[in-house]
Write a structure and sequence with these properties.
Blueprint: H1 11-30, E1 44-48, E2 64-69, E3 74-79, E4 87-91, H2 105-127, E5 150-156, E6 161-168, E7 175-177, E8 198-199, E9 209-213, E10 219-231, E11 234-248, E12 256-259, H3 268-271, H4 273-276, E13 279-283, E14 292-296, H5 298-302, E15 308-311, E16 325-327, E17 329-334, E18 337-338, H6 344-347, E19 351-353, E20 360-362, H7 364-380, E21 385-386, E22 398-400, E23 408-412, E24 414-418, E25 422-425, E26 432-434, E27 440-443, E28 445-447, E29 456-458, E30 466-471, E31 476-481
């Protein structure tokens, strides 16, 4: 369709043409799904299978050094590649991580099962007929799932020491391992070596002691302390965090936890609200030899103008105290075909986005529909199926992707549909879980198996390569294409 003006000099006509084009662009963008690192064509990705394989060296571009000058000192911080003045995110294993750990799928999935079970413990006790109200715990015990999580470095104390903490949107307390050793051993913080540390909480209404026990029986126990806390380039002179004196279990080689859940006044989001306005965003890298980033404040939202937002929902009463992020998932598409799944399946008890769960959990009916459609597509793409590896039995739909034909293989696109007409297209690395034998890969979804009534959980594997932005005061969560966290 062409539009012309009788006279090129007619200002009104030019304005009408411009308005028409602007409206056309807006309509086009409103129906375009958010994509991961690349855009699918006609419902399929064409990708290089080697892109899913790990490398021995961290291939992320070096951070740009930037000098931040304060009233009494200056410090050098790294600006992650792509221009994001934020914190670099790494896997808890692989060449970019300082933990020195190797990937163990068995350990990751065992911890992941504990995490999902712990989140759903609340709904289980709520509807159980086997225990009295008095016996019900006020809060479920969350599992850290240390190996499957992502790490970020923060600065604590003066002089500053850096510590790698697990990013957890399901925890409200930020804590770090502490010791009295003069040497920095076992990733620990020594309060006596910090000139700015004060014993006891910064927030007068909170208790001095804390004790956090997780579903896998790992735990962190200690006291609240107050010290300078640095989230580059921002410094908070008096930040309350847990100083853990007693650690039990395996936290994946991390020094502690960065709690990004909503809620309590001692949560990071509440303590930094005057600066960051309860806004943050992250991009999880698709492979362990790349880095992502974590941003806080207005730049977490404004740095990606094409974010598409879905509303944050109020949690069911049984989950109200946890500060989890509930959203409205209404459907799933595979290869441009909407699956026949009722949105009510995802609504009761609800759907959360969680950084601490690895594999997305779906209600049984929804998972079975996705699995059947995926298997049919892979059959047509001539990819031979294989039994689930012994270290990945959580996943039941696996293939020898090196035998699918040529080097560049097709993969059906998966799109998650959210309220507010938001469509999120998953990156290939968010669809497949690579097995440790390098030839195999499995559909990276699982059904909610332990509970007939359980939360739908969107795990961190499905979030890779996407920018996920949280605007708590605005009551919304946004998704954006971030080109594998390199934009």
């Amino acid at each position: 369709m062409a539009m012309t003006c009788p006279s090129p000099s007619t200002a009104m006509c030019r304005l009408l043409i411009f308005s028409f084009l602007l409206l056309f662009f807006a309509c086009f963008m409103s129906n375009t799904p958010v994509n991961g690192a690349e855009q699918a064509k006609a419902g399929y990705y064409t990708f290089d299978v080697s892109s899913l394989l790990p490398r021995n060296k961290c291939s992320a571009p070096a951070a740009v050094e930037k000098v931040i000058i304060y009233a009494d000192r200056q410090t050098v911080v790294g600006v992650p590649p792509g221009g994001h003045a934020g914190l670099a995110i790494t896997y808890n294993y692989g060449p970019c991580s300082r933990s020195g750990r190797k990937k163990s799928t068995t350990r990751i999935f065992l911890q992941d099962q504990s995490r999902v079970r712990s989140i759903n413990d609340k709904s289980f006790t709520q509807y159980s007929t086997q225990e009295s109200v008095a016996d019900r715990s006020p809060k479920p015990k969350l599992s850290l799932n240390g190996d499957g999580n992502f790490l970020v470095d923060v600065g604590i104390g003066r002089p500053r020491n850096n510590f790698s903490l697990i990013i957890d949107t399901g925890s409200q307390i930020t804590w770090v391992q502490c010791s009295s050793s003069k040497k920095r051993e076992n990733h620990s913080f020594n309060p006596s070596l910090s000139t700015s540390y004060s014993y006891g909480p910064c927030i007068s209404s909170t208790d001095r002691n804390y004790n956090t026990t997780y579903a896998d029986m790992s735990s962190s126990e200690g006291v609240f302390g107050c010290d300078e806390f640095t989230l580059d380039p921002d410094v908070f002179p008096k930040f309350q965090f847990g100083c853990s004196r007693k650690i039990k279990g395996d936290f994946g080689g991390a020094s502690g936890m960065l709690g990004l859940a909503q809620g309590e006044q001692y949560s990071l989001l509440s303590q930094t609200a005057s600066n960051f306005k309860k806004k943050f965003s992250y991009c999880f890298p698709p492979v362990e030899h790349n880095k992502g980033y974590l941003l806080f404040g207005d730049k977490a939202i404004s740095s990606s103008p094409l974010l598409k937002f879905t509303p944050l929902l109020d949690p069911p009463s049984e989950f109200d105290s946890l500060g989890l992020y509930f959203v409205e998932l209404i459907g799933i598409s595979l290869a441009k075909k909407r699956l026949n799944i009722s949105s009510s399946l995802f609504a009761s008890p609800g759907t959360i986005i969680d950084s601490g769960t690895v594999i997305t959990r779906l209600p049984a009916v929804a998972y079975e529909a996705l699995r059947a459609a995926f298997r049919q597509e892979m059959l047509q793409l001539h990819c031979p199926s294989i039994p689930p590896p012994s270290d990945a039995k959580l996943l039941d739909t696996c293939y020898n992707i090196t035998a699918c034909g040529v080097r560049y293989r097709k993969l059906p696109e998966i799109v998650l549909h959210f309220g507010g007409e938001v469509e999120v297209s998953l990156d290939p690395a968010g669809i497949l879980w690579r097995t440790e034998d390098r030839n195999g890969a499995c559909l990276a979804f699982a059904e909610i198996s332990d509970y007939s009534y359980g939360l739908t959980i969107i795990g961190n594997r499905q979030q890779v390569s996407l920018k996920v932005a949280y605007d708590i005061e605005g009551g919304r969560v946004g998704f954006g294409n971030d080109n594998g966290c390199m934009n």
